[in-house]
Fold this sequence. Notes:
The structure holds two protein chains of two kinds. Chain A is α/β, with parallel strands linked by helices. In chain A, about 30% of the residues lie in helices and about 30% in strands. Chain A has two domains: about 35 residues; about 100 residues, CATH 2.40.50.140. Chain A is elongated and about 75 Å long. Among the domains of chain B are: about 120 residues, no CATH class; about 100 residues. Helices cover about 65% and strands about 10% of the residues of chain B. In chain B, a hairpin with a 2-residue loop joins strand 3 and strand 4. Chains A and B meet through helix 1, strand 1 and helix 3 of A and helix 13, strand 1, helix 14, strand 2 and strand 8 of B.
Amino acid sequence: MKGLKKRRRVQVIVVAALALALATGLVGYAMRDGINFFRSPTQVAEHPPDPAEVFRIGGLVEEGSLVRGQGEAVSFRVTDGNASIPVSYRGILPDLFGEGQGTVATGRLVAGVFEAREILAKHDETYMPKEVVDALKEQGHWMAPDGS
Amino acid sequence: MFVELGHFALVLAFAVSILQAVVPLVGAARGWPGWMALAEPAATAQFLLTAFAFAALTWAFVTSDFSLALVVGNSHTAKPLIYKITGVWGNHEGSMLLWVLILTLFGAAAAWFGGGLPAGLRARVLAVQASVAVAFMAFILFTSNPFARLAQPPFDGQDLNPLLQDPGLALHPPFLYLGYVGLSMAFSFAVAALIEGRVDAAWGRWVRPWTLAAWVFLTIGIALGSWWAYYELGWGGFWFWDPVENASFMPWLFAAALLHSAIVVEKREALKAWTILLAIMAFGFSLLGTFIVRSGLLTSVHAFASDPERGIFILAILAFFVGGALTLYALRAPAMQARGVFGLVSRESALVANNVLLAVSCMVVFVGTMWPLVAEMAFGRKLTVGPPFFDMAFTPFVVAIAALMPLGAILPWKRGSLGRAMAPLWGVLVLSLACGAVVWALQTGGSPLGPVGVTLGVWVVTGAAADLWARTGRDGPARRLARLGRLPRADWGKAVAHAGLGVSVFAVAALTAWESEDIRVAREGESFAHAGYEITLAGVRRVEGPNYVSAMAEMVVTRAGRHVVTLLPEKRSYPVAGMPTTEAAIDYGFWRDIYLVLGDPQEGGGWAVRTYVKPFANWLWAGCLLMAAGGLFSLSDRRFRIAAGARRGAVAPVPAE
């Protein structure tokens, strides 16, 4: 009875350890293409990443750069006050997207143009993505929005 | 005035919960029945006082009392009444009050229905429950008071975020909180058992209905949230692996594990220490979820409130309760000797496998959710962990769970034989593999997800049916059919819930593998074809709603000349909140959903239009509902009502009165 209990306990621990090891392996493997680094426009301008890498870029939508309403593709420039990167997006922009607003886009940099596959929407008009705030602060262009 | 009374009631409830957290605990330790007996009236009083506070806040919203800062920030006189009421929990402060209201409701329910519990255990459970309430009432009163007044009330409010003005929001948070907070009962039972140093079959039977109820609510809450995101956001997705979604998913996984391991405690008196640990972890993860949502620490589309002070407060609560419970666990775990032994091939082993898979898959989600935080603090790199990570790392565990489920469910307790257990399942296995093969042959060159999903779905659903059938004995079909109806409700619950998981797994795979999408510019009167449907943009007109204006498109969908449906997707603009929203139009169907989104107007005339055809989308939520229904069946099982009070062997050390 005692021995059986002990053996069962050892087996459970072995199974749990195996599952954890498998999970760690899977996590490590999935991290390779499941992780998207965040880059500010300045960082992208200085060290353009490989066209194969999917990453996120964030900043403000530059005033006067947004071209919408010309077919299903939309283009704009995202800036942190220092550098600005052209972005093209095929799809319907999120509701609260607009010039002078903060945005975060996920995609790849192909031949100097950021091809976005997803544009982050926010739920609230006073919300600014944390990365965008940091990127603007770095370039000294951050102004706290009133009332938030 | 009424509002002040509500505020006062909340302060009183805070005082009552402090009393309830201390006095019964001392009474139970010393064996003083009078002190222990305080717990029940205190739990009831605490609930009534909190309910009064909540009613006062609701009243303020309904009457648009703009002297309250919270009402100004989240309401408007022109808002429909239903959204004035749901606006109470459409914000940080009000939703915390709902959280606490549900917490006290569970405490009171334990007092009302806990008649069969030994006095000592009941006093301790209620005391632990009250101590959680103390922490969260302090949190509300000191950092996020919903009753804060404004010195100069404005004439009108700033309106509720339009995305939240939706029937989905009316139901999603209450169900989610019933689930989250319901896990506090499992936690209270676990800590009370640790203080008492005693875990037995009766304990398992008491803790299971509470966990089951919490799990059912959490299932419904998550499904509602996912459905709401699907039809309201207009992105066409149902799950984004967003930190806040994960925050609700992790406690669900742990609650599912706890649900299963509590069966082993109840039936076989094994896995005791593990079950206690799971109960602590399940509630710990629901506290962690609260922390993630409220602190704004992780970038999420949900971003509730980003106030570091609140975050630190909740982190302190989390550290105190989980840390305290784990310390107690470390001290008392050796006292929890397992009684039952079991063979390698047995239902106990299957349930252990279920637990290991669920717990490890939860750890995977946890790593993916918290990694951005770790990376930023430890390596100074900003990153996000996207859906590809979770798809890759989480899916194998779901596949393993679904693959093992029918076999594990059919194995007998103590010792079984694989050959005998597989006997009723061979047919099922052949059938599901054949279905998968047919689908694989039909779709030629598509993603392997489709056939795998079909195989697993058929395997789990028909496996559950085969299990139920096998339980009816060996007579002729007529007598077995008659016996089917008389099987215990718990058996039915198990089969239905397992089948629900099978349906959901199939739906997720089908949706991911076979959905099709189209985006284009359409002029008014223009038609285009997509996935066998002919879609015409008949016209776009301006429509005025109660507190918004809208551009509404009329889109006619036909198939082979026959009219299928006319859909009205909209782009709304809420002037008070200064916010536009996209209202997708969806034709819900048994086999597929047609999902239309209206985009921007184009300069040269015409509109951007996005079309999705989503096969089996409704099956996903139907599967969730089946799981919840299975939980309810189990909950209504006879043994929870009849034998709930019976404790085998020696009675807990309570002196005679």
